[in-house]
Amino acid sequence: MFRKMAFLFVTCSLLWVIVPSPMADTLHAVVVANTNDWQTGASFRKDLSRIKELAGTISSHTQLTLRFYEISGNHLTRNKVTSTLEKLPIESNDVVIFHYAGHGGRASNKSSPWPSMDIDGGALDLDWVKSTLEDKKPRFLIILADTCNNFDDSLSPVWSRGGSSSGGTSSSESYRQLFLNYRGHVFAFGSKPGQSSWGNSEHGGFFTDAFIKNLNNELASSNPNWHSIMKRTEAPIEVGGKVQNPQSKVDITPVHAGIVEPIPDQCYYFYKPNGVLCCRNSSRTTCDDEQSQQEDACLEGGLFMKPGGITCCRRPTGITCN
How far apart are CA 282 and CA 229, in angstroms? Predict the structure, then answer.
C-alpha cells in the first residue's frame, strides 16, 4: 500500500509477459518482488519462488531459452525496474513474462484499472510497464500483478481452493500449445479498483495461487485454453469476510493457419463452500467435482456381478469393474 500518497488502495497482481510462437527462441521472465517488507515479505517471497519455478518449467517443455530477471530485496528500486524493462533485448518471436508481488495502490482520480507499484524511489504505474513491454512487440505478452497485498498470516482463503500446485501431469504439447501457438497478450491483476488483494506465507498471493492452479489444471487437459484459465482465475476470492475480484483481459490469435482459434469461456466462475470451482452459464451450473462424482456413482440398475464375484457398473459410456 502506498505510504506517502493519498491513494485508494488496491492490491493487484503483476501482469506476466509471455511471448509465445512456434519460432520463438527466448523466454524473458521478469519477476519484481518486495521480499524485504517486514510484514508481507514472506508472501511475496512465495510468489517469487513459484513464478521462478514456473518459468523454468515452461522453458523446459517449450525449449525456449530462459532469461530470468529477478528484482527483489535491496535491489528493488524504481530505477532498477525501469532500466531493466527498457533494456530487455526482446525479439519479435520471444515470450515475455512480467510478474509483480508487492504493495501498490491507485490515485483516486485515475481512470485506468491498472494500479501502481509502491517501490523505493517512487510509485511506478503498471500502465507504464504495460506500454513499455507492448512497444517492444513480443509475440505474446502476459502481465500479472499481485499487488497491494494486505498480509496477515492469520488470514487464509475461506476454503482451500482445489487445483494442482505443480504441472507434473502436464504434457509438453500442452505447454507448446499455450505458449507457442498464439500471438497477443494476457493481462491480469489481483483485484478490481477499490479492493485489496490478499496473501499469506503458505499460499503466497491468493490471486497468484489461483492463477498457477488454474494454469496447471488447464495444462493437464487435451486442449488448454487461455480464456478458460483466466476466467477461472477471476472467480471471487473470499478472505476473512472480505472479497477480492481478480480482473483479466485475453486478446490472442493463432500464429498461423491450422491452429484452432481459442473459444472465449462463457462461464461465470465461483467457489462452492468446500472450495470446488463451479461454472454458471445461461443453461445450468456445473462444478469441477461433478465428473468424479459421476464416475464414482452407479445409476440405479447399473450394478451387476461378473463371474468370480467382481462388481461392475454399466454406464452410458461403457462398463467398468472393480
Answer: 20
